[in-house]
Amino acid sequence: MVSSVGFSGALASSGLAKNSAPARATSQAASEPRESKVEALARQIKEGSYKLDLDSLAKKIAEELI
Q1: Is 38 exposed, middle or buried (0-12, 13-18, 19+ CB in 10 A)?
Q2: In the 8-state DSSP scheme, what is residue 52?
Q3: What is the Cα–Cα distance from 16 to 31, expressed in whole angstroms?
Q4: Residue 41 and residue 50 in contact, taking contact as beta carbons nearer than 8 Å
């Protein structure tokens, strides 16, 4: 007969059961500044003030192709 106690004991000793909730909170907190950057970028594009640095873009594309 297989008991489920062994699995839950392994899960508890690894710390996964206790650390799962803070990991979600951390990922939510990390995504908030990213959203504000995206919103700022969208606003700049909509206003027409967003500019591409064509020289650096061309260099990056060339480096990827080489």
Answers
A1: exposed
A2: -
A3: 22
A4: yes
Continuous segment of H or E residues that includes residue 6: helix 5-14
Distance CA 30, CA 65 (A): 33
CA nearest neighbour of 41 among 28, 33, 56: 33
d(CA 30, CA 54): 30
Q: Say if CB 50 and CB 44 are below 8 A apart.
A: yes
- Over its length of 66 residues, how does the chain's per-residue pLDDT go in tens digits? 555 555 455 545 555 555 555 555 555 556 667 778 999 999 999 999 999 899 999 999 999 999
